[in-house]
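Collaborator request log, item 7. Partner lab (contact: R.S.) asked for a structural prediction of Sugar phosphate transporter domain-containing protein to inform their binding assays.
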Amino acid sequence: MICSIKQSTITPTINGSDTIFRRKNMSAIQRSLILPSLNANKSKPVLSMSKPLHVSKVESFALSRPQKRTMITCKAYEADRSEPIEASEVKSEAAKRVKIGIYFATWWALNVVFNIYNKKVLNAFPYPWLTSTLSLACGSLMMMISWATRIAEAPNTDFEFWKTLFPVAVAHTIGHVAATVSMSKVAVSFTHIIKSGEPAFSVLVSRFLLGETFPPSVYMSLVPIIGGCALAAVTELNFNMIGFMGAMISNLAFVFRNIFSKRGMKGKSVSGMNYYACLSILSLFILTPFAIAVEGPQMWAAGWQTALSQIGPNFIWWLAAQSVFYHLYNQVSYMSLNEISPLTFSIGNTMKRISVIVSSIIIFHTPIQPINALGAAIAVLGTFLYSQAKQ
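Returned to partner:
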């Protein structure tokens, strides 16, 4: 038996293996030091004497006043079977951080691949409404097959769940289409530079619509974010107002989506993966009639023939890849959102854009002026300051 008692002036350590239990004439203080809850009138507890016990915490111990009876709280654990509560909590927190880190890294990598293939498709097939619809359809089909084959457990939903999900699906649909429209008109790097201003939208929406308050440092960090985005916009070589407005609308829509998603996931027994699957299905039903009304099958057929004649069979692979990777990166992002707050999600989403901007400039050989790069750097710096202010 190994017992460690913490006190400000006296810290006795008793090391006696099983010798302690052989003494029958122990004093009352010695008995309370070792096992205060044992006494002859009560049933004997079951203890294994072949393995040492460690007393992790003893509270309210006092030798100076023997006349008063003190209550001792003793927490013990068997050495080779369990661990102190403090150590297990530290390990649990570390494991959670590693898990979130893996989610973020996977999310960013999948997003880079999606943006590359999405831009390739839009360059050859400039119909963003159909492209957005196919992305949602592919993800919905993948998840329904997973549920049917029991690869993934189907969610247990009811009418209240779908009712709560509907505003999330509306915001997701608007944000998805707006971002795709933006990338069909301007470079991927420019779209993501503008979309790096999402934390500003998140703070403003949280402040004026949700009533949340933030320290002055958070508001000050929004200045370089907004200023950097504005500088990048006015110095963009291939500036397009539709592309710019699409990115801005996407920012606002995705902030509402993230906030509504976090609220909708509270108290629900649906995982982040299944939550996004249900969101894709509902968004597909919302988007399909609008896509047909805006573009239509005739335009799609003509554009399909043109793309196949220019690109060849690779165009089909590009379209399939952008649809699959769109679903995967969003699915992983929702698994992350299940673990963190909407504002933290916005920070991770903004930092992700650095890799997307750099990779798209390299792959597509996007021309960029020094002043334009400076604006992007200022916006990214503002995002870093924002994340530090939030912490």
